[in-house]
Design a protein that fits this description.
By secondary structure, the protein is of the alpha+beta class. The protein has one domain: minor pseudopilin epsh domain (minor pseudopilin epsh fold), CATH 3.55.40. 33% of the residues lie in helices and 27% in strands.
């Protein structure tokens, strides 16, 4: 009986050990999990950062295209007004029914997400065949024609052609956004063609059209 009872207890202990995990096994699993998390989290953060920057660049590009369409639809000048210091942009349409003509906001204002701003960092050259030198679009003007500080405007005439404040064709329009790691640029050619580009934030860029 004693032997039989001892054997029964031994089998019970074996079943109990087989049903659970040892401390070494738990520590090993935790260590592997921490290693995988240490590798995956930075990668995920970089991926999410690129997606966020690409998303706002598409928003700028779409807003530029919408401004071009609005100028033709309203048969007047329209512009994408960018507040470089406030990291925001909105569309404006020129109201020619009043004297002097008045720029009126059309639609809401879009703000850049945290960690993204207007700029191009150390990048020293524009996308190919776009600008003579990398720079944001020319500053916006008020109703009196005075340039507003820390702004940039892409303006279209009623035919959807980008123009300067003197109403001559513009072939140097561009807007750049960056998160410090990458730079996206939205360029507008004299023909009205809108292009979106991206490059790592380096002095010698490798621009790729998106």
């Amino acid at each position: 009986m004693l032997i039989r009872g001892a054997m029964s207890n031994l089998r019970a202990r074996r079943r109990s050990a087989a049903d659970g995990f040892t401390l070494l096994e738990i520590v090993t699993v935790l260590a592997v999990g921490l290693i995988l998390a240490g590798v995956a989290v930075p990668y995920m953060n970089r991926t999410l950062g690129v997606m966020k920057l690409a998303g706002i660049a598409r928003s700028v590009s779409n807003a530029t295209a919408a401004t071009k369409v609005r100028s033709a639809a309203k048969f007047t000048r329209a512009r994408l007004f960018v507040d470089l210091s406030g990291n925001s942009f909105h569309m404006e349409v020129l109201d020619t029914s009043v004297v002097p003509n008045h720029w009126t906001a059309d639609g809401g204002t879009t703000y850049l997400p945290t960690g993204v701003g207007f700029g191009f960092g150390p990048v020293a050259a524009p996308p190919p065949n776009t600008q003579a030198a990398i720079n944001q679009a020319a500053g916006c003007t008020n109703d009196a024609g005075v340039v507003i500080g820390n702004t940039a405007c892409i303006m279209f005439n009623s035919r959807g052609i980008p123009i300067k404040t003197d109403l001559n064709p513009e072939d140097q329009d561009a807007l750049y956004v960056t998160d410090g790691t990458n730079v996206y640029g939205v360029t507008v050619l004299a023909t009205g063609f809108i292009g979106t580009w991206h490059t790592p934030a380096a002095a010698a860029p490798t621009w790729v059209i998106s």
